Amino acid sequence: MGELLDALLRCLLVLGAFLTLPLLVGQMEHKAMAHMQSRVGPMAAGGFHGWAQLVADGIKFVQKESITPVAADRRVFELAPAVALVPYLVAMLAIPLGPFFGQGNLIGQDLDLGLFFVLAAMSVGVLGTLMGGLGSGNKYSYIGGMRVAAQLMSYELPMVLAAASVAMAAGTLSLIGIADAWEPWWLLAQLPGLIVFFVAGLAELQRPPFDAPLADAELVMGPLTEYGGMRFAMFLLAEYAGIVVLAGLTTVLFLGGWAGPWSDHLGWAWTLLKIAGVSFLVIWARVAYPRLREDQVNALAWKVLVPLALAQVTLTTVLVVW
Amino acid sequence: MSLTELVFLVLAVVAAGSALLSMTSGQLVHSALWLVVTLGAVAGCFVLMTAEFVAWVQVLVYVGSVVVLVIFALMLTRQTSATTAEVTGNRWIAAALGVVAAIGLGATMVAGFRGEDIEGRRIGTAGSIGQALFTDWVLPFEILSGVLLAALIGAIVISRSGSDR
Amino acid sequence: MPLLYPLLLSSALFGIGLYGVLARRNAVLMLLGVELMLNAVNLNLVAFDAWFADQLHTGQVLTLFTIAIAAAEIGLGLAIVLALFRALRTVDVDGVGR
Amino acid sequence: MRSVLRSHWLYVALTAVLALVAAIWAVPHLSEPGWFAYAPDPTGFTPPLPTLSPDLFLFPASAQIVLLAVGVGLLVQIYSTAYLGHHQRYRSYAMVIVLFLVAMIAVVGTTNLWVLLVGWEVMGLCSYLLIGHEWETGEARAGAAKAFLVTRIADLGLVLAILVIGETYGTYDLLGAQPLDGEAKNATAIGLLVLVAVVGKSAQFPLHSWLPDAMPGPTPITALIHAATMVAAGVYLAARMLPFYADSTVALTAMAVIAGITMLMGALFALVQTDLKRALAWSTVSQLALMFAAVAASDPEAGLDHLVAHGVFKALLFLGCGCLMHAVGTSALSAMGGMRRPMPVTFWTMTIGFAALAGIVPTAGFFTKDSVLHALESATEGDGALAGGTAWALFVVALITSLVTAAYATRLWLKTLLGPAPGGLDAHEAPLAMTGPLVVLAVATFAVSIGQPFHHGIGVVSTVIAAAGIGLVLLMWRRGSSLDWAPAPLAAELGLDRPFSRWVPRLTGDVASAVVDLDRDAVDVYPRGGAAAAALGTRGLALVQSRNVQRYATVLAAGVVVLVVVGVVVS
Q1: Rounded CA gap, D385 and D387, in Å?
Q2: Stretch D440-460: mean pLDDT, rounded?
Q3: Number of folded domains that form chain C
Q4: Distance between CA D379 and CA D373 in Å, rounded?
Q5: B110: which chain C residues are within 8 Å (Cβ-Cβ)?
Q6: Domain boundaries defined on chain A
Q7: Most buried of A98, B21, B150, D552, CB within 10 angstroms?
Q8: Which of D 315-354 lie inside 8 A of C, CB atoms?
Q9: Domain count of chain D?
Q10: What's the N-to-C CA distance of chain D in angstroms?
């Protein structure tokens, strides 16, 4: 009975994190972007610096009518947001937050193959955007969908390779194991892997500057063109959840997770802090860099990231064997 | 009937049904998406059969790469005139052959392995699989890398020769 | 769990995949049929691996090999299909013959 | 170099060299004793296979013939420079004459039967080429083809004769195959085959009709080939081969019958012709038959003597005819007459020629015909292979032929050289290159008679007969007859040409169309059926080869299923 309760509690906790963390990231994006662009951003909703802006947005989305275009492939169209969202929820299950006041590791489910699990879940998640592009019955969406597919195929490889490098160094695929095995000098040894992983993750999430598939100026949001209301909100949520998952993975794999002072008790806080920092980097990248052209996207993947990742794997191999 | 068996049967029905839908669906994209369901269900079966590592590899490679690749190919080769049927004229022969093959194989299996049970004594973890892979199976592994390289070069050559024209 | 369950599922998948390979007009769908058949084989391998519980994990390792080869096969196959499409503007298998 | 090649005299010189060599070789043999006077070498090596070594051997008679051939050939070559020098294909014409002479020498001089056959065939080829020299006219083409085809029948006889001789005597050498002590073997077979050969070559009944039809050839060629040499080669062969079949009554009787029929028929046809060349051609046929009569009477020497004499005066007549044609432009009798004044040389030489043809003392024609008649008269005693009755009949026919010969010779003489000249005719003498040979031949007509035997009784009889013939015609001429009599059957040459001109072509055509039909409807069934079967099979295979991968895969899968089922059932 205690076990079942434990599992239920963990699930609830993950669900709570899933519902709150992306909102926090979204709010941070609003405010950070605004200040970077010398404006104040949302101020009205909720009073203090517009803290309830995203809640208000959510209420607005819920109120909106969900429209399905006539030309759309109805089932695919309607299923796409869920396919985009759910895998990140599942992925979050396996991402550890670290020791919680000496009460053991705060994690949904510790898996022997945690890294694989998360990567697999993320790779399923991108299918959602693809389905949106295919099912909308809109040529902008179609082109956007094709760009998504090309981008996913290109960036999956360097991302997995970079993750594999860390797994090799740690000698395990368990995320907790990797974070435990982390040592500070990995920051230097795994730096190329860190960069590759982060950049490839950005591309997988189609975050700027890799948002050529969405490209609101030319493709009118690409696969998301026809979506409105709650379904669009789910896509948005999936995007921010994706940022959280990416930031969490980056933290656990490359930044030592809960490594820090008093980590036995405050490990979870360290992890959250690092996740916030990485998320801020993601937002910063959006503001700082212009959108890459489609050919630049693929060139970056195949000509820079893949060789870099392979070099990282080689280096790690040498280090591990030595 | 244990919980594992029940889940397995459900997954099996899902896998077979979605496979059938995938192969008979009139819309190409639906076929690919039904295939995703089939592959996912098969991955679930793998998990139930103590092959966790294989399961996640299946999801990662098939769902993450192969299906995306297939969908990409489908999008690239979308035909403007959809006048032709999606199945050929010999569909009934094909169906008969498929049924015969399935029944024949099934009958063979039933004849040969009735009453056997999977006990799940050895879990296929990353460690055990890796141990096997890089000790006893290292030579096939290396050969496979050669095969993959050949396939990679072949795919590049075929694509290039097409685009040069 | 009875060994027959995965084996029968594998038979069914193989039959369905065979039908797809033989009956689908679109070359990409033919490749999907092949993938389905390969998956049937994988299912068998994994099932027998679990049944034998042998030290080498023969079935699971072979399954990994199969998956790798399947990925190579689909990559090459799609390259051919795309070349075909570029040349003939069709991926109908029986349209190619005409 | 081109101008030299173009020069007519180059070919004359070539022929002269050939003639000189032949003469140096042949003249010493003239005085050698005997006819076939040689001893076969019993130890002689006989090769198992036919050889083509030209073992040359001459005896007096063949030496005569060689000299006749090269002499007439040289004269014809000279004559042709004027007569045909303008012709654009003169070069090939002249070279063919040279080739012909070489072949003739080969036939006469060799003892190897296969070399003889080759020479014989080459002569036939030359004859074909020269008859068809004016191949622009259909007449020449038809005549050439006819001559070629008819003489091929004869050649078949010769080939078979050679094979029979080779099989019988174990050698293909004339000397080695000479029957010893008169023990001739297979005499009748050899004799009849040789008869076939010479009948075709020498235009005897029933293969006679090609010779008159060969007249479209250039007149000098007619003189050379179709009067003096080639057709004479048939007589020569018959005489040369006589030892092989001298014992065969059948062969000799057949030859006698053919000779009898031919000589009278040829003379009668010659009597009614309205064309000088054609008349002379029939005359040749008749005279050749006379020579065969001598051979049949087992006196080949007389036949060959007459051959030489006839060669000389008939060449003279034909060349003279050429001069007349040169003057009048045609060989029709109606266009000629009154030639004495405008063409004196031609007139006098041709008169000598006609006299020789009619058999008047002292021309060579008289003496040699005298010898032939003597031989026939001797044969009537019946001590040879020829039966006495047959010899009698032949003798009588020969006498009648003499009468008719004298008559037609006179007629031709009167019609062509005397009589009124047709209006508008501006005849003039031929150039020296043409009249020269005439004079030489006219002299030779007398010269050949030197040393010829003379038989009193027969000589008187034949002179009387000839005089009767001449007188008869002269009488009618005096009475104002135009001498143009032509009973219908004779004018139509008894329709003897019909088998060749009508039946054979029609039969050949019918057979050919039958063969074509057979080939198309019966033989072609197999290839066509094969093709249809292959097409059917191909179509079936094409169904399988649908270029549809899935159909292949389906067949493959079905095959696997069948194999598995069979395997299960069997096991």
Answers
A1: 6
A2: 75
A3: 1
A4: 10
A5: 4, 8
A6: 68-321
A7: A98
A8: none
A9: 3
A10: 95
Q: Which helix (H) or strand (E) holds B68?
A: helix B67-76
Q: What percent of chain D has pLDDT over 90?
A: 1
Q: For residue A13, give how far its alpha carbon lies from the nearest alpha carbon of chain B (Å).
A: 25
- Asked whether residue D157 is assigned to any structural domain, the reply reads yes
Separation of alpha carbons B79 and A123, rounded Å = 28
Q: What are the domain boundaries of chain B?
A: 1-77, 125-165
Which of A162, A164, A168 is closest to A191 using CA atoms?
Answer: A162
Looking at D199, D216, D247, the residue that finishes a domain is D247
Neighbours of D156 (CB within 10 A): 14
Between chain C and chain D, are at least 3 CB pairs below 8 A?
A: yes
CA distances in angstroms from A298 to A155, B72, D477, D510, listed in the order given: 8, 15, 125, 86
Dihedral over Cα of D127, D138, D151, D301: its sign:
negative
**Do D550 and B104 lie within an 8 Å CB cutoff?**
no
Domain span at residue D305 reads: 249-491
With contact defined as 3+ CB pairs under 8 Å, the chains touching C are B, D
Residue D365: closest CA among D309, D423, D293, D311: D309
Convert the pLDDT of each residue in A188-224 to its tens digit.
888 888 999 999 988 888 888 888 788 777 877 778 8
- Select from D232, D247, D262 the last residue of a domain: D247
* Domain extent at residue C51: 25-93
Q: Decide if D561 and B104 are in contact by the 8 Å CB cutoff.
A: yes
Q: β-strands A105-106, A98-99: how paired?
A: antiparallel
Q: Which amino acid is at D251?
A: A
CA distance A23 to A4: 29
C93 touches chain B (CB under 8 A): yes
**Token pair for residue D421?**
């000249």
Q: Does B97 touch chain D (CB under 8 A)?
A: yes
Angstroms from B64 CA to nearest CA on chain A: 5
Domain check: are D290 and D353 in the same one? yes
Alpha helices in C1-98 (DSSP H): 4-23, 27-52, 58-88, 93-96
Provide the β-strand partners of residue D86: none
Residue D510 counted as domain residue? no
Residue C24, beta-bridge partner list: B87
Q: State which CATH number among 3.90.1310.10, 1.20.120.1200, 3.40.50.300, 2.40.100.10 fits the domain covering B1-77.
A: 1.20.120.1200
* Structural Rg of chain A based on CA atoms: 20
Question: Please, which residues bridge with residue C92 across strands?
Answer: C26
Q: d(Cα D239, Cα D262) in Å, to the nearest integer?
A: 18
Taking residue A39's Cβ as centre, other Cβ atoms within 10 Å add up to 9
- Which pLDDT belongs to residue D466? 79
**Model pLDDT for residues A232-287, shown as the tens digit of each residue:** 888 888 888 888 888 988 988 888 878 778 777 777 888 888 888 898 888 888 88
Tokens encoding D195: 């008869």
- Residue D513 counted as domain residue: no
* C11 within a domain of the structure (yes/no): no
Does residue D539 share a domain with residue D458? no
The residue whose two tokens read 């039969």 is D507
Residues of B in Cβ contact (< 8 Å) with D564: 104
Residue of D nearest to B92 (CA): D554
How is residue D518 written in tokens?
């057979």
Q: Specify if D223 maps to a domain.
A: yes
Distances (CA, A) of D432 to D4, D72, D76, D77, D437: 22, 17, 13, 13, 9
Which position has the token pair 């006539």? A70
Domain-located, residue C43: yes
Domain match, D474 and D529 both:
no
Which residues of chain A have a CB within 8 Å of the CB of B38? Answer: none
* pLDDT class of B98 with cuts at 50, 70, 90: confident
Q: What radius of gyration do chain D's Cα atoms show?
A: 30
Ramachandran assignment for D487, one of left (phi > 0), alpha (psi -120 to 50 degrees), beta (any other): beta
